[in-house]
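Open question from group meeting: does this chain pack into something compact, or does most of it stay loose? Before anyone orders reagents, we agreed to write out a predicted structure and look at it together. Recording both the input and the output here so the notebook holds the full record.
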Amino acid sequence: MRAAYDRLVDAYASRNDAMPDALIPLAHRFMRGVVPNGHVLDVGCGTGRDMAWFENRGITVTGIDLSMAMLQFARHRVAGNLLNMDMCLLGLRDACFDGVWCCASLLHVPKSMALGALQGFRRVLKPGGMLAVVVQEGAGEAWEDSYVDGVWRFFARYRADELERILGRAGFGTIETEVCPGRKRTWLSCTCTPA
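Structure tokens returned:
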């Protein structure tokens, strides 16, 4: 995945320049669950699209991504800390974030590793903190050809009950689950707090 996104950075940035209208209601719900002047972790921040949107609304954000090319691109559009880090191996202190935003990132993790990643998100959240997870709805997992020839990416897709179950196993209580049709895919989002 690191190599794929290092190669995709320019094409990805041009396709994902601004927060999509369909995500804005979720982002506002997430912000309402984060304490004023809170600190948010953007997991898989990519080119900094969502991070910049939150920063423009007064939220302090730290972004992590596996791809150095994505982080280098993001550095030109965001003010917060950017860290080269695997979401399955969070090298962050316990209970240091008021919110964790994970939009279209967990779907690149094999399902066998998703529980560990979600447990890591719970570990770095403060009590009462907010988690937002967005994945593609569906079933199965596989490597798929990308919108750039020769670049393959891994995708794990979830049904709503499956995502809620794994969030519960990771120690979250589901607050809200929403299905949102997109241009090419149906998206599934969950906002949760630690149980």
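Observations to bring back to the group:
The longest helix spans residues 2-15.
The first strand starts at residue 39 and ends at 43.
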